[in-house]
Structure formats: C-alpha cells, structure tokens
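User: Can you recover a sequence for this backbone? Please restate the input before giving your answer.

Assistant: Of course. Working from this structure:
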C-alpha cells in the first residue's frame, strides 16, 4: 500500500518536473525565445525557469509544471499550413484557453498577421506572464480577452462572438466532463462568423483508446469526439465532422518510472 505522503509526492512528481525536457520537445520554443524575443541563449534557461514557476504558482497545471507548454506541437498539426495561409488571406484565428499564448507567438513568428489573431483565457495572470515570457509587451498587438467559457453570464468573451473563422483549442476540452464539454462546444460555435462555411476547431489533448470519464474528465477517441460534436451540432443547429488520431507519448518521471500518455490530435470541420 502507498502511504499518504508517498501518494502526495507521486502526485507532485507527475505535475512538476525540475529539469527541462529533452531538446526535441523544446527546440521550437527555444528558437522562438532566441529569434522572436531576442533573448541571449545563455539567459533562456533561467528565464524559462522563472516564468514557468510563476505560471505554475498561478495554477498547477501539469502542462506548465512538466513544461508541456514549450512543445509547440501546433507546427506539426496537418492543418498548420492551412492556418498560416488562411490567416494571411484575412481569416481570424482564435486561440481558446491560450494560457501564456505560446501558439499565438509561433503563428505570428511564422507569418500569420497579428491583426488576424485573437486569444482568450480564464486567467489574466497567464496572459500577462506571456508578455514576460516572450518579452513582447510593447510589440505584440494580438487582442486578448479574459473570461470563463463555461459561464453563460460571463461577458468577458462576448466581444469575440461572431468574429472568428478558426479556433485552436489545445489541452482544453480534456479538463472537463461530458456535459461541460458540450457547453464549451456550444460556446465555441458562437465565436464563429455567422453563416461561415469553412469553420474549423482543432487541437491536441489527452486522449484514450477507450473513451470515458476519468476523475470528472471525459477523455476521447475519434468516435466519442464525433458523438460529442453531434450533440454540440444538435444544440447549435450546425453539423460537424471530426477527424482525429491517437498517439502515445512516454514521459519519464524524475526519480524513476515512466508514464505513457495517449494524446489525441483532432480537427472538427463544419459539414
Ligand atoms: C492545460 S492549460 C492549456 C493551455 C494551452 N491551450 C496549451 O495548450 O498549452 C488549460 C488552460 O485553460 C484555461 N481555462 C480553464 N478553464 C477555463 C474556462 N472555463 N474558460 C476559459 N479558459 C479556461 C486555463 O486558465 C489554462 O490556461
């Protein structure tokens, strides 16, 4: 049997890693800090540690504690070239639950016009820490909104209603159970421009080959994600087609041991 203390310790190890991950997981972010933010290479690691710890103190998401926010997976999403092409042609992309806004900086660095990018998050502190992380408070012109996407009475996000063509939503839906995910989907649909035909929601999150609830959160494979979007579609008078694929990632824990995580990369297109 595992003692209470050991369990607590294990929980902490699963959420927080002192050492930076292997280079392949952070090379894009490092490049961004060096060549977009202009931070000298020998200052990057202490800078990253400082901002990461400040962000983890705001809320202890494993994606912050375990440095996953530095994995700019979005650049490898099959739709990434489309995101760049469409935003360059005027489409508006919203990063939903953008946290420190790393995906938005990457998109801008790769040529997406800042005036066509938007972000929102529940916590303003993360958005502020994003300016500290990327040292671009005076130059990054992307508008950020703050609000609770699950609270219909929260007006913080209403300025985005009916203004968006593309929504990036990474590590977001998996925070919630089925019913909240349906409400979240309904909220995202309201952000799209009226009558838009090529609306797309895309991202990556924790997945599973066997969909179901786990500690209050519902995890998906492609089939369950399609059922979710069928329900969101029924409630919003829209129709959606999901394409998703699962992959496995090994995570080595400090102090020994490994966890294997299923990830699901997805795109949901208006049908
Ligand atoms: C696990 S982080 C993922 C952040 C980012 N998308 C990424 O891929 O690194 C989850 C984010 O969702 C935001 N969030 C959680 N609940 C929210 C809500 N109800 N409305 C808006 N944002 C929320 C958190 O503040 C946090 O920044």
């Amino acid at each position: 049997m595992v003692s209470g203390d050991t369990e607590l310790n294990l929980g902490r190890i699963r959420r927080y890693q002192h050492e930076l991950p292997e280079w392949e997981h952070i090379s894009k972010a490092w490049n961004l800090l060096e060549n977009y933010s202009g931070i000298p290479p020998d200052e990057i690691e202490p800078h990253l540690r400082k901002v990461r710890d400040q962000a983890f103190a705001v809320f202890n998401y494993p994606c912050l504690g375990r440095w996953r926010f530095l994995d700019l997976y979005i650049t490898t999403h099959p739709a990434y070239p489309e995101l760049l092409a469409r935003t360059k042609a005027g489409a508006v992309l919203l990063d939903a639950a953008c946290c420190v806004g790393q995906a938005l900086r990457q998109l801008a660095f790769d040529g997406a016009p800042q005036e066509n990018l938007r972000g929102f998050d529940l916590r303003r502190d993360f958005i502020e820490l994003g300016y500290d992380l990327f040292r671009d408070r005076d130059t990054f012109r992307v508008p950020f909104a703050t609000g609770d996407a699950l609270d219909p009475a929260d007006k913080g996000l209403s300025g985005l209603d009916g203004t968006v063509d593309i929504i990036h939503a990474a590590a977001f839906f998996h925070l919630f159970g089925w019913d909240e995910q349906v409400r979240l989907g309904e909220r995202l649909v309201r952000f799209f421009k009226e009558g838009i035909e090529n609306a797309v929601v895309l991202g990556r999150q924790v997945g599973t080959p066997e969909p179901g609830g786990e500690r209050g959160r519902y995890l998906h494979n492609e089939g369950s994600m399609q059922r979710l979007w069928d329900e969101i579609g029924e409630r919003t008078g829209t129709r959606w087609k999901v394409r998703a694929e699962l992959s496995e990632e090994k995570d080595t824990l400090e102090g020994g041991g490994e966890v294997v995580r299923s990830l699901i990369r997805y795109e949901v297109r208006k049908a």
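That completes the design. The first helix runs from residue 4 to 15.
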